[in-house]
Every structure is written in C-alpha cells, then in structure tokens.
Amino acid sequence: MHDITFDDRDELPEPGGEAEALLDARGRVAAWGPGAETLLGHPAREVLGRRAGDLLHDPAEAARLARRWDAGAREGPLTLRRRGGEPVEVQVWVRSLTTADGEQRWLVQAAGAQSYRTFEFGRALLQGLFTDIPFHIDLFDTRQRFIAQNLAQRRAGVFRDAEYSGHTMREMAPPGLLDLDALEERQRRVLETGEALLDTEVVGHPVPGSPDDYVWSESILPLRDPSGTVIALAHVVSDVTHRVRSRERLVLANAAGTRIGTTLDLWQTARELAEVAVPRFADTCHVDLLDTVFSDGTDADGREPADDARPRHPLLRRAASDGVATADPAAGGVRVGDLDTVATAPGSPFLDAVAEGGSVLLADEELRPAAADPRRAPGAGPDVHSWLLVPMLARGVALGTALFMRSRSHRRFEPEDVLLAEQIVTRTAVCVDNASRYHRERTTARTLRRSLLPQRLPSPSAVRTASRYLPASEHTGLGGDWFDVIPLSGARVALVVGDVVGHGLQSAVTMGRLRGAVRTLADLDLSPAELLAHLDDQMNRFLDERGDEVSLVTGATCLYAVYDPVSRRCQLARAGHPAPAVVSADGAVDFVDLPGGPPLGLGGVVFEEREIALADGDLLVLYTDGLLESRAQDFDTGLRRMRATLSRTPASATPQEVCDTLVGELLPPGHQDDVAVLVARMSGLAPDSHVTWAIEAQERLVGRARELTARQLARWGLAEESFTTELIVSELVTNALRYGGAPIALRLIRDRSLICEVSDGSSTSPHVRHARDTDEGGRGLYLITQLAQNWGTRYNARGKTIWAEQSLPR
Fold first, then answer.
1. Hey, is 232 helix, strand or coil?
2. Which of 133, 282, 464, 614 gets the most CB atoms within 10 Å of its CB?
3. Which residues pair with 87 in a beta bridge?
4. How confident is the model at residue 2 (pLDDT cuts 50, 70, 90)?
5. How far apart are alpha carbons 201 and 604 in whole angstroms?
6. By the 8 A CB rule, do 400 and 416 touch?
7. Are 645 and 628 in contact (CB under 8 A)?
8. Which is nearest to 356 in space by CA: 317, 328, 396?
9. Strands 609-613 and 619-623
10. In what order do the strands lie in the sheet with 397-406?
11. Cα 342 to Cα 80: distance, rounded to the nearest angstrom
C-alpha cells in the first residue's frame, strides 16, 4: 500500500504519447511506431531513414526546432503533415537517449491537440482535487482501508502526523467523531451496488469533548478499473454546518409564520410560540405577558396604556411554558396563569428587557454566576448552559417577554439564533397585540350589547318566553336586530321584535335608541298602531340627526304585540316586519293575517292593527327576516320551511327548545344577516282570578264598590289587604264619578300582584294635586301614590282606565 498524497512540489506524470518515433543523431527516423503511422498515415517503410524535418508541415521550421532542442526546450506544439498533405496539430515531447555503444538517440512522443487538451484538463482536475480544493477527500480500498488523502484533509488535523495508510476509519478516528457503524454501512452499500451515495449529512464532533455539533456533507463515489470493477471508494466531505444551521433557522421561521397567530386568543398565541420553539430551537421556553395585556385596555388605575415602552406597573403573568424544567410548584416554579413574581422583582433582567427593549444572552462562564442569583437569571437550573431573554414589543409598546433555555442540546445560542428569536418573538408580539386589541374590542362590544338587549326576560305569569340572538358579526357581536318583553298594566304583556337596516355598531346604536323609545311609549299604554306611529316619528328624528351619514342606517322594521291574559286577546301591528306565526296546541301553524305597513322612517304613515284570540298553550313566534332569507333562499321558501319545522315541533316543547329548533334547522349556513327569535307560550288567567263590576254613576254606590271589594278579597284569602284596597277602590271610583263619565266599571285582578282598575268614558287625564290644608278634596290620587306600589292611566277608544297595583305577600 502506497501513500500517494500530493503536495505543492509534486509533479504529475506526463501522458503516454499517441505516437512514438526514434531519431538518430542526424535527425533521421530510426524507428516508427504504430501510433505514428495512425497519426500521420505513413507506413514505416516510407519514413525510415528520412529526415524528421520532412514530416513538418512547414519544412523551414526544422532549423528553428533544432535550435530550440539544443537550448533545452524539448516540449511544445508542432504542426505536422499527414501523408495526404493535411496539417496536424500535435503536442511533442522529446527525450534524449544514449545507446550502449554511446550513440545519441532522440525519443519523440506526440499527441493530438485534442488529446493533449483532455490530458491538461485531467491534470488540472487532479491538481485541484488533491491540492487546491477545500473539500476533504479520502480514498479507501475495497476492504475499507485508507489509501490516500488530499491536502485539505491532511490540514484539517484529524489524522495529522498519523500513519493512516492501510488502516480503517474505525482504527484511526478519535472517540465521538461520528457514527462509525453508519459510515461502514454506507461504504458497504456503495461497494455492493456500485452506485454513488451523494450528499449524506453526517453529524459529528471534530474536536473531542467539544460541545458544538458539526455537520458534514458526505458523498461516496465508486472508482472503477477499465473493466468496470469497483476497486476503490472516494469520500468527498465538506463542512455544511453553516448551511444546515441556516436551513434549520429558515424552517423554524417558516413554522413560526404558519403556526403562530392562528387564532385571536392570547393564551393560544403564547402556547403556539412555546410549541414552535421547543424542541427545535430551545429545550425550555417560558412566555410571560404583562397583566395589562389581558385586561380590557386599562391599567390598574383605569388609565389607557402609555405609548412608551415602559409600563407604569409591570406585572408579568405566565402565559405559556413548554419543554424540560417547566413549572414545578414543588420547586417554586411559576404555573401558567400565575404572576411571575421573580421576573418582576427589583433588579430582574425581565424588567430591564421590557423597559429597554434589548435581548439578553448568557452562556457558560457568563451564566454560572448569574444562575446563582435567581433575580439575575430566573429559571436557569444547573443543567442550563444557554439562557436567552427576548422582549416582546409591538408598535413600540412592551407586551411581555420570551425566555429560551438550552440544557440537553450541546449547541450554545449564537448571534444568528438571537436574531431568529427576535424575529419569531416580534411576529408573536404582533399577534398578541392583535389578540389583545380584539379582546378589548370584543369585550367593549359585548358590554354594549348587554346594555342594548335584555339579558334576562321578564317572566309574567301569563306568558313564558325564550329568545335567541345571533349577530351577523361574530367579532363584535353587534347588530341591528332586537327583541323585548315588556310587562304592562292589567297583567298584560307587550312582545316586540325589530330589525334596523345594516349591521355593526351604527345599527346597534340605532337599535338601542329604538328599544328605549318603545319602552317609553309602552309605559303610556298606547295601542300597537299608535305606538308604531310615534316610533316612526322617532325614527325620522334619528335619521335627521345623522345628516350626511343617513345612508348608514336608512330605516327599520318592527312588530309590536300586546297580549291580555284576562280576555285572551292579542293586538298586533307591524311596520314592514314579517308576520308572526301562531302554533296552536293541536300543532296547526298559521301566519297572522296582518297588514304589513311600510318600514319605520318614511313618515306620515298610518299603521293598522289586528286582534286575534289565543288559547292556553298557543305559541306566538316572532322573528326577523335573517332567520329565513339568504342569498341561497328567498323569503317565501323560508316561510314554507318554517311552517314545516313548527308543524313537527312537539306540543310539549318549551319556548327555548322551539327557539333552538328554529335556529338549528332554518338558519342559513354562513348567515350574513342578524337573527332574532322570540317565542312566547300563552296562558290566560283563571276565571276565578279576576272579577268585573259595572258601577252606576251614583256616589252612594262607592260604598257598594268597597263592599264588593272586601267580599272578593275574602274569597281570595286576602282579607289582610282589604283595608288598603278598599281605600284605593274608594278613591278611584269617586274620581271616576266626579271627573269621568259613564260607563264606569271596576275590575280586580289577582295575579302576582293585586290590581285594581276603574274605567270610565272620559279621556280627561288625571293628575296628582298637592292639596292645601284648607282644601276639602284633591287628595285622592296622592293617597293612591302612597298606598299602591304603582299606578297609571291607559286610554282606549271609549275612554280611560286608572289602575293601581299592590304587592302581595309571597
């Protein structure tokens, strides 16, 4: 086995010539080889004894060539002449020979110009491979033993000054250099298959005991003899550590771009950062966010966050943790959701990072003294050798920190790792900032929605109600659809559903104003048609106030219904709103034949109303058009589907179950409109819970009214309330006799409260007077205000009704 290592002083052997000839001392051809005959076409018999100069294309060149040879230049290009006279470009080598008897001879070797150029390229290639190329090249024989190495491999120092030739890699490699079993398996595979194995990435440690991993690209090439038999292996190895590290960082950056910020949830975003970092970038990752990030946008003093990077009251809360050495409560670790009191202690690098916006990298000698003080490097246990703290900033505002630690990995954090960590944390900061803003906006929108819509419907004894509200925008939760249940006098109940044109905040604000207007008008006990007329005027005023923004909200629809559980009659009117559905106890479904009327906001419109009878157990279903109408379905189709759905609804279904069924079966997928549904199950008051008497217009009958009242209260078991109720009845009847007109009627209703109503034929509005000490009258209504829980007046086509309500003991 020979060492054929080349260095800068080595010379490569010259190629064997394609043609050979022997010249005597006089320059005549003494021998003529077969290659010369092939090259020039002259057989030996024609050239033996002739002068060599006769074979030149230009015979005049012979003298010059002889002078060059005499001067020692015995290699160079020549132009020879073929037998047919054609010129032949060749490269010539001349060597001096001496025979045994002392005669001088000249051996002339020639090669065609093309062959010579090929030889030159090959020689340059060999020179580059074995002396100049930075790759490491090893040659192995078929028994996996070293044959040779190039200079780059020798200079690498792995086998420096070692006699490696004839030994295997296992015999020569220092411990821990690489996986020798895998290397020998790759060599055997190439020897057996004869196929090259290219660009295999191999991890190893060129320096024994070094904590850093290196990555080499290894290619194993089979070398063959002229017969094609593999006689050796060439290993070409290059250091690709930087390339692999760059690729790993690029993969990690791409993973961060696709996996971080998939939701607008703060906790999930923090978890995604930790999951991306571990284990590909760090062995442990802790993400802490400032407590103000989780709030509704104000700090502990109720102020908006400052525009600078330094929070006034820095409190860091653990938002995510992943990897080894994560929170262990027994060891004093910080659990997810807890405040990180160590990070916010005086002198903590977390506070400096948040305030100054700079990353902190500690490793090995720098980390050991810092790890001894938990305030200087929190979380750095004895196994941690690299500790990297990166502040989380967005729009120049501090949001928190991300801490990365390495303990199991041999690699220390490098400057490129710091840049990568800052890039990933910056992306996370943008996502956290978006999530925080979304959280604040959503909280604000939900607060506004709670203030605009009833969060708990009243529960009058005569009506059981349930509702569903689905805004078109899940982000804000705001829309223009609304509903309400309003208790009225006389145990009556008003049911309202409305729809403001448009979506979002502007529609929600208009809806809130309309709902407030309806409640105010409902207190006046107006009929449905009158209430809608007043609401139409109010809507016009809203639109006038908008001025140039009138196009944002162009109108609204509304349905208003009043149910009287005594008469079991329901009055309804609508302003451009879909007609309600009535589901009877036997399952029949009908839509109320109710004049539609124009939407609110047109002005000068007279609305019509209808009165329908409702039996106990009947369902009244009010809804907005978003439940039935979509781009894929017209309104009439939606009505037919709604009728079919209600027909299949069991009679025992609760109003809430009916709401859920309607929304589940009828709501278009990806609905683009707000949806409101209000379902009410009706039940009238029992016949023995109310009584009505006609009162003749004679003052002597006031006593009769008191007597009837006392007797009825005794039947109801309310004798203890008799004194107060008799006073109220006496004052109400007296007021009707003096200031009202026939017909006069007295009605008592026992519901959850005791209601006294006196009706008369006059529309004169009563009012409370403050009587002087000398006045003989004028104290009746004032007395009622003191005795009754509530009282009021409602008007109808035949006059008015004054009512007073008393609370009853449970």
1. strand
2. 282
3. 81
4. very low
5. 85
6. no
7. no
8. 396
9. unpaired
10. 316-323, 284-290, 397-406, 386-394, 360-363
11. 92
Whether 507 contacts 480, CB under 8 Å: yes
Size of the chain in residues: 810
What are the Cα distances from residue 125, in Å, to 118, 259, 805? 10, 48, 111
Q: State the chain's mean pLDDT as an integer.
A: 81
Beta bridge partners of 322: 285
| Distance from C-alpha of 543 to C-alpha of 535, rounded to nearest angstrom | 12
State the burial class of residue 114 (Cβ atoms within 10 Å of its Cβ: 0-12, 13-18, 19+): exposed
Closest CA to 273 of 329, 242, 335, 318: 318
d(CA 91, CA 120): 11
Instruction: Report the 10 Å Cβ neighbour count for 102.
Output: 6
Q: Which residue has the higher pLDDT, 340 or 63?
A: 340
Q: Which of 14-23, 232-241, 321-330 has the lowest mean pLDDT?
A: 321-330
Beta-carbon contacts of residue 523 (< 8 Å; ≥ 6 apart): 792
116-120, 784-788, 789-793: lowest mean pLDDT where?
A: 116-120
Q: Which of 148, 219, 204 is nearest to 174 (CA)?
A: 204
Q: Which token pair is 241?
A: 């550590």
Residue type (1 letter), 768: V
Question: How many angstroms separate the CA atoms of 231 and 245, rounded?
Answer: 36
pLDDT by residue (tens digit) across 637-680?
A: 889 999 999 999 888 899 999 999 999 888 877 667 788 999 99
pLDDT score of 691 more than 70: yes
Sheet holding 479-487, edge to edge: 479-487, 493-503, 556-564, 569-575, 609-613
Average pLDDT over every residue of 576-603? 90
- Determine phi and psi for 539, rounding to 5 degrees: -65, -40
Q: Do the beta carbons of residue 300 and residue 289 sit within 8 Å?
A: no
Residue type, 646: L
Contact (CB, 8 A) for 155 and 11 = no
pTM for the model stands at: 0.59
| pLDDT surpassing 80 at residue 610 | yes
